[in-house]
Structures are given as C-alpha cells and as structure tokens.
Amino acid sequence: MRALPPLLESALRNEGVEVAHLISTTLDGPVRFSTLGDISVGGEMYKGGMVRDLTSQDWSTCSFRVANPRGVLTPFILSGAWRDQPVQVHLASIQRGDYAVPGYAVDGYFAQYSVTTMLLFEGVLSAAPSATPWVTFQCVRSAGLFVPAWRVGKPVFNHLPVPGSTITWQGQTITIESR
Fold first, then answer.
1. Collapsing DSSP states into helix, strand and coil, what is residue 12?
2. Which of 76, 89, 103, 104 fits a 20 to 30 Å CA distance from 42?
3. What CA–CA distances, in Å, run from 136 to 20, 40, 128, 129, 132?
4. Distance between CA atoms of 92 and 102, rounded to whole angstroms?
5. Residue 12: what pLDDT?
6. Are 122 and 88 in contact (CB under 8 A)?
7. Over 50: is that where the pLDDT of 104 sits?
8. Which of 113, 80, 158 is CA-nearest to residue 11?
C-alpha cells in the first residue's frame, strides 16, 4: 500500500489544499497539462484549461480529453505520430501561500503555492477515438508492454527418438513411426 505525503493527506481532508492532476506527454512536441490551472512544478509549466475528463478504473489504463481549438491538433492526430508516445499522470496537492523559492529568497521573490506530487500512471498513448472539438486519448500502462527481440526462441526440443524406436509408457509399448 502506498503512503501519501503529508501535504496530499491534508488535501484529502480539505485543509486549505487543492488537488490537481498533472499530465505530461508528447503530442506535436512535449506538452504538460493541469486539471486545476496554470502551475509550475519543478521548473516545468503545466497549462490549465486544456484537459478534462481524466478517468481511470485502476490506473492500468486511463483516458483524458485535450482541447483542440480550431482543429489545430487534427492533422497531427490523423497522422498517427502520437501513437506510443509516453504519458505520465501525477496527483498534485497545491497549498496556496507565500513560500520562499530556493535561490530567489535574497531578491524577495516568493512563490504563491507549494506543490507535492505523486506518480499515479506511467504509460503510452494508445488510441484517439475522437478529434474535434476535444481530442480523446486512451492510454495503457507501459510496464509489461516490452516485446522481446526474439519472437521465436532457439530450438530446445531436439531429442526425439528416431522412427522405429519403442517407448514404454504406463505399461504400454509404443513404436515411433514416421509420417
């Protein structure tokens, strides 16, 4: 069982902490979306208002919808170049307030929030059943999707008796014949 960081626990108890999902993937370049609003996490900016309807039953699969204003993403979606692109979904807890940002405290710069994240899903984009006005993406977990280079292994069963040999099995004698 996973232990939640303290900030996520207080978010679940509604103690002045907001919860968001952060989605990062590669569409026509790297993109990052937030279900809450624009937010910076670890120097990366997650854009709010572009994603909705993030759903999952058990986090072995998930789906979400991305805004496709004026059909900008449609040619890219139809090309199929998005298939098997990596996707990560994090659960983030955001606590508003003034927090000193390391390296900027001397200049008097303070962040307006503190963020704690936890990885919920890591996989690949697998399907895009609709493209306008929202692109729906379906994702599958990447763990266990490794396909080995050898599809058929080297022969390991090479000790068959030659035709005419006899085998005794459960009290019966069987003579090997060729076809």
1. helix
2. 76
3. 19, 25, 5, 6, 9
4. 20
5. 62
6. yes
7. no
8. 113
